[in-house]
Design a protein that fits this description.
By secondary structure, the protein is α+β, with helices and mostly antiparallel strands. It has 3 domains: 189 residues, no CATH class; 159 residues, no CATH class; 397 residues, Neuraminidase (6 Propeller). 14% of the residues lie in helices and 33% in strands. A hairpin with a 5-residue loop joins strand 33 and strand 34. Helix 4 packs across helix 5. The chain is globular and about 85 Å long. The N and C termini lie far apart (72 Å). The C terminus is likely disordered.
Length: 785
């Protein structure tokens, strides 16, 4: 409380809502309080301290906390015995302290601790006799663990001291799994914490790196990430379990998420500091915002200052690079390592870390800065797909048939709730027609997908129905676009389905089949499924793409699959996804030669070295004219940024992945890849979201040899370089020469779907020399030949 009064209270604002966020394991010191924690406090290693806690809570032998819980759950491990026996001690101190802080400072408070999944206050004399602290006289009640599972849980306290929400960490680090024996929070429970002035997504430590967690929260319209953190080993060399410089690895989390996802406006990262016996926590807290070129530039120590860091807590000493003297990056890091090692347990300056708080005023619901158009991109001037002054538009998808007819779908909040809208692209005037609803519903609809056949248009989306999230599908006759009733895939309850993607293929009989890939969590883990039906019908048959036994029992997430992409060629169907194995997300592909009834064993596509914590995401898949597959993804293989888009070809063995960003700088990132081509052409277009020059824009690279080589990237959007950003592009091939590219654009102050279309050129254009929009649109020539 003294630290809060000294560091936090002066930073509060009477004219704003105040949100105070504590680091991960904020409740950990509670384990060592009181007479029973005295011997543990004297230890020099965490292992020895836990052993002393075990001995302390084993007393008295006739009626001890450990004996109490063993009587209920006889098969507990020693560490589980300790964690459960500490329930009354930890929860009493943790909960009472946080409530007092929330009330005294009239603030919202978030803090985390390891605690049972269900706690009950008991006045039963037997419970009090076994569990109460012997140093507390006249104890009238105790807190009892009613769930043997212990979770790393973040609790949200309102200004009146009540707990309004709790979020359990889903992805555990090895120490939490094997030593602390914590349980995994269910991914199906991930949901925003809506405070009115902010819509929070709590991503405790490792969760902030996981693409499935971040994708879910972005889909659910979270605008502020809260990342309680206890990242062990910032500077000391002998604590570095990560490649290179640990702050570089750490930047993959909150900073990257805010720059990559349009929805996330800020991220607050409270970082634990101090030595817990032999465990070293020496990182820096930070508040992250959207990068703006030319604005304030900060960084963690040992890094190059960059945009997107609103404020960063000081480290123990100033970075040598801040002195104005010229130091190489390695010289700076060597000097910082020396300081870090002097703070380790047993050294002269042990535990001499900075204890402070940082603060910033943020505006999560404020609109993006408005801006005018910039220089036209390689496809010319962009236009809005469906102009509107209300709501936001996001998650666009586009499909095109062999005749060049295109249609776009997206989620739209103009009516106050997220609904799926669609519009048809008219090739005659290169414009979209009026927007219309696909299937009106009182429920939120999200993340649509679309495919077009000669007879039908199919649109699928995710809809929140009560406590379930189901994939629904609606079909329209191609000629009148009157969509019929939305139907589910028939999967049994409880249902938690995500990210539909569609493809259509012509079978040997001449009938079209429709294929829908999605993520289902019916068995406690995220797995990729494919549903199939014949064109003009809605009778879906669902089967898993990868039916092999899981290597870890649910709910351990080290079996999880995410982000499917589907493609077809004749009667062959292929699905790509990212799978979490060995603490890394890698890209996998499985193929079917019998119309999607069965699939081959998954093959890993990416060629990243087998190192801990690779993170690949955003897979995209395309069948080329000869039946070869082209697979692309966002690749982050060296435990640190940048992320770069790569592609590889396979028949079915895949070639070595190669970059598409030939001109990207060392700190530039690329994400959200999409690819398109036609079965009658070897021309391929790849588009992606590109973070360079401290903002996001849309780039494209073209191939005219079926993806064997790609020309240099060219910018597509015409956004203002300094004020607005573009996100999440999609591409369709209108014909052999022209492409249609859609993206999310912030120039109007809110996300809107814009598009550009035209003949794509292989010649690299110098954007600085391009004339105004009306001039360039007249000069466009078809340059594929």
């Amino acid at each position: 409380m003294a630290l809060v009064e000294r560091e936090v209270r002066p930073k509060l604002r009477a004219d704003h809502h105040n949100l105070i966020v504590f680091p991960e394991y904020a409740g950990l010191p509670c384990c060592f309080i009181g007479e029973r924690g005295k011997a543990a406090r004297m230890q020099t290693t965490v292992e020895a301290a836990y052993h002393e806690l075990f001995l302390a809570y084993l007393q008295p032998a006739s009626q001890s906390p450990i004996g109490y819980y063993l009587e209920r759950w006889p098969n507990l491990s020693p560490n589980e015995m300790v964690s459960l026996s500490l329930t009354d001690t930890v929860w009493r101190a943790f909960c009472q302290t946080l409530r007092e802080i929330a009330v005294a400072l009239n603030s919202w408070v978030i803090a985390s601790t390891n605690i049972s999944g269900q706690i009950e206050r008991s006045k039963d004399r037997t419970d009090i006799a076994a569990l109460s602290d012997p140093s507390l006289t006249g104890c009238a009640s105790v807190y009892v663990a009613r769930d043997l599972r212990v979770f790393n849980t973040a609790f949200v306290f309102s200004p009146d001291g009540n707990i309004i929400s709790s979020v359990r960490k889903s992805y555990l680090v090895p120490t939490e799994e094997s030593e602390l024996r914590l349980s995994y929070g269910a991914l199906s429970d991930i949901a925003p914490v809506d405070l009115g002035f902010a819509r929070l997504g709590i991503v405790t430590s490792k969760d902030a790196w996981m693409p499935d967690v971040l994708d879910r929260l972005a889909t659910l319209d979270v605008n502020v990430l809260i990342q309680p953190e206890a990242f062990e080993g910032w500077a000391p060399a002998d604590c570095d379990s990560h490649a290179g410089w640990p702050p570089d690895n750490f930047q993959q989390s909150g900073w990257m998420a805010v720059q990559k996802y349009a929805a996330f406006r800020y991220c607050a990262i409270p970082h634990l500091t101090g030595n817990l016996m032999d465990a070293v926590f020496d990182g820096q807290s930070a508040i992250i915002c959207k990068a703006v070129p030319g604005k304030t530039r900060n960084a963690y120590v040992g890094q190059t200052p960059q945009a997107g860091f609103k404020t960063v807590a000081p480290w123990v000493v100033a970075d040598p690079g801040e002195s104005g003297t010229t130091f190489t990056i390695e010289a700076r890091r060597d000097a910082l390592r020396t300081v870090g090692e002097s703070l380790l347990p047993g050294t002269s300056r042990q535990n001499d870390y900075v204890e402070t708080a940082i603060a910033a005023t943020i505006h999560p619901v404020r609109r993006f800065p408005k801006s005018k158009a910039g220089v036209p991109g390689v496809l010319g001037v962009s236009r809005p797909v469906a102009p509107s002054r209300l709501g936001e538009q996001s998650y666009a998808k586009v499909a095109c048939d062999d005749d060049g007819c295109a249609m776009a779908v997206w989620q739209d909040t103009r009516d106050g709730r997220s609904q799926i809208l669609a519009a048809c692209f008219r090739d005659t005037n290169r414009r979209f027609g009026p927007a219309f609803r696909v299937a009106s519903s009182p429920n939120p609809q999200r993340t649509p997908a679309i495919c077009i056949t000669t007879r039908s248009v199919y649109v699928a989306w995710q809809e929140d129905i009560g406590l379930e999230r189901r994939i629904l599908v609606s079909r329209a006759n191609r000629h009148n676009l009157a969509f019929g009733p939305a139907v589910s895939l028939g999967t049994p309850s409880p249902v938690n389905e995500w990210l539909p993607t569609l493809a259509a293929t012509a079978a040997s009989t001449g009938h079209h089949s429709i294929f829908l890939a999605f993520v289902g969590t019916h068995n406690g883990n995220e797995r990729i499924y494919v549903a199939r039906t014949y064109d003009a019908t809605m009778d879906w048959a669902v089967s898993p793409v990868d039916p092999s036994p899981m290597t870890h029992p649910a709910p351990n997430p080290r079996n999880n699959q995410w982000a499917p992409s589907i493609a077809n060629h004749g009667n062959e169907v292929a699905v790509a996804w990212v799978g979490f194995r060995d603490f890394s997300w890698d890209v996998f592909v499985s193929r079917s030669t019998d119309g999607g009834r069965t699939f081959s064993s998954p093959k890993r596509v990416d060629d990243a070295p087998s190192r801990y914590e690779r993170i690949h995401s955003d897979p995209a898949l395309l069948f080329l004219r000869d039946g070869t597959l082209l697979c692309g993804w966002s690749d982050m293989r060296e435990q640190r940024l940048p992320s770069r888009v790569r592609v590889a070809r396979g028949t079915p063995g895949f070639s070595k992945g190669r970059f598409l960003t030939n001109k990207a700088g060392p700190d530039d990132n690329s994400w959200r890849l999409d690819v398109a081509g036609r079965h009658d052409s070897e021309r391929v277009a790849a588009v992606w979201q590109d973070y360079r020059n401290e903002t996001n824009h849309i780039y494209m690279a073209l191939s005219r040899d079926a993806g064997a080589t790609f020309a240099e990237e060219q910018r597509v959007d015409d956004g203002d370089d300094a004020r607005n950003s573009q996100y999440a592009p999609q591409v369709a091939a209108i014909d052999a020469e022209r492409v249609l590219v859609l993206w999310e654009d912030t120039r109007s102050g809110q996300r809107r779907i814009r598009y550009a279309t035209g003949p794509a050129s292989y010649q690299v254009r110098d954007r600085a020399s391009v004339a105004r929009a009306d001039q360039i649109s007249l000069r466009f020539k078809r340059s594929y030949n």
